Amino acid sequence: MPELRKDPITQRWVIISTDRAKRPSDFSTSRVEIRGNGICPFCYGNESKTPPEIIAYGGNGRAPNTPGWNVRVVPNKFPALGIEGSLDRQGVGLFDRMNGIGAHEVIIETPDHQSTLATLPHDRFEQVLWAYRDRMNDLKNDHRFRYILVFKNHGEAAGASIEHTHSQLIALAIVPKQVSEEEENARRYFSQKERCIFCDIVRQECAEGSRLVAENEHCVALAPYAPRFPFETWVLPKQHGSAFENEPAAVVSSLADMMRNMLRRLDSVLDHPPYNYVLHTSPVGEERNDHYHWHIEMMPTLTKVAGFEWGTGFYINPTPPEESARFLREAES
Amino acid sequence: MPELRKDPITQRWVIISTDRAKRPSDFSTSRVEIRGNGICPFCYGNESKTPPEIIAYGGNGRAPNTPGWNVRVVPNKFPALGIEGSLDRQGVGLFDRMNGIGAHEVIIETPDHQSTLATLPHDRFEQVLWAYRDRMNDLKNDHRFRYILVFKNHGEAAGASIEHTHSQLIALAIVPKQVSEEEENARRYFSQKERCIFCDIVRQECAEGSRLVAENEHCVALAPYAPRFPFETWVLPKQHGSAFENEPAAVVSSLADMMRNMLRRLDSVLDHPPYNYVLHTSPVGEERNDHYHWHIEMMPTLTKVAGFEWGTGFYINPTPPEESARFLREAES
To answer: Complex ipTM, two decimals?
Structure first.
């Protein structure tokens, strides 16, 4: 008998197939291969092929837009949103529109075309997280922005159009629906219980254990109770933290360790799958609160989202999270 | 400057790229080809390879599960939900679960393996819609069900695992989030204005014209103001109707004509793209109301949904609906 499970944070139901649960080898996903053909705008020597850099780490005394960097952040050459102008909110008959104002940046995680994020050494991984943090804190000075989302598409099947490993950041003039739903539900829970729902989940999962993948000093990785996707994995801080970008260095270091560990386990269990991850933090201006708990959602691209999902907003997941957690727990990291 | 637009029904924002709008030839979508390899469980003579049929049309005097039918409805051999048992709602610590009770059926739209829904003659298309309707009305007698969703995945990239043209139906014990959001927002609009929001949209779009694709006696096809996907197209009845399954024969006939017309235009403009469509009707037991208006949402599979969409719940659409409507308006049907 399949099971319907409800995610307590988003209130989203998912169908979990329990009878014929899919194991890692049942997915016909395409292994992400780095081909290295052609000229790559994210490699050393091609710095002029991107818009001028915003920040870069590494290469003491190096001139901007020259080789020698470890992590480099540039505006997206084909941005989804434009940085210049005012919002100009308008009604158009029944409808509402505004100018597509926002920042769209690319975090080039390493100059090495052959690396993936999972194969970076710990300290270089940590630098990527510091780049996220620095850019988030800088963009908050722009008062047009209400939310800053960091995300990563790895592999063509997961939407990456350039194979050289990179993350993206989008600053938005609105709080996106997905986040505001999480935030509203977390606020409602807090107003009833005076506890953070994420903290409660972390406590329950650590005690119960069947969906727990790994723990380190400050972070925990778990398969959520009602995941949309097979092998979906969340990384959260163990102590309540409402905004990633305000965490102390020790937590960032723990997070780098845990994310790297999870990406390596996913590579090992699923043979280098395409994946997405997103960083959910509190909206701009609401960074200090007791109800919302920042976290990373990692989603390997194993299934196709089709008519049923588009029509309902709920998901059919062929791998129970207890199974995916077990595979990931037993994997090499 | 890109534009942010808000869908008035779901309150979902989308980013519409207006500068470098993608034209049909800019999408590297894979044309759906019918290969016809191997033994197909949906072809004549293989009726025993599916679970026993629930209903079939055509073939007067034919024995069940033998050739001669025009449309055949069978239980899904690998159902996402189980039909037997009780819901057994439970709490598991913080979490909520219930048994995955539901019906999951397949509507085989034609015995002809080489046909697509778009190439069926009008009267055969109409029979497919009658099969939807009959199954919906029958499943409503099962008091465990609160929503019945009909959807179609066409082509492998759109999630179809069998190439022989077919639709699917899922009966659910809960109203899916997507529908309940539409329904709640439509109810709120009605309580403010005493008008159906969908009726208002149809009126405005017919008068304004830039997103209108086609009209016939009872139906209209349009590109919504804030579509998630390029070339997303909605078909709606012009007169208020809250439940598809209660419409009179004239409307069903008009709908068959309009859907067929749209699928042929999509084939012509986008060279036989993979696509999904979903039928949104009122929840079971709330069929007669003034605020919700049934409709079909058609979505060709042209773009990849990636980290940004999963993280935000909003969408980047590279083709303004005014452009897609113009292409579809000018296409052969």
So the answer is: 0.88
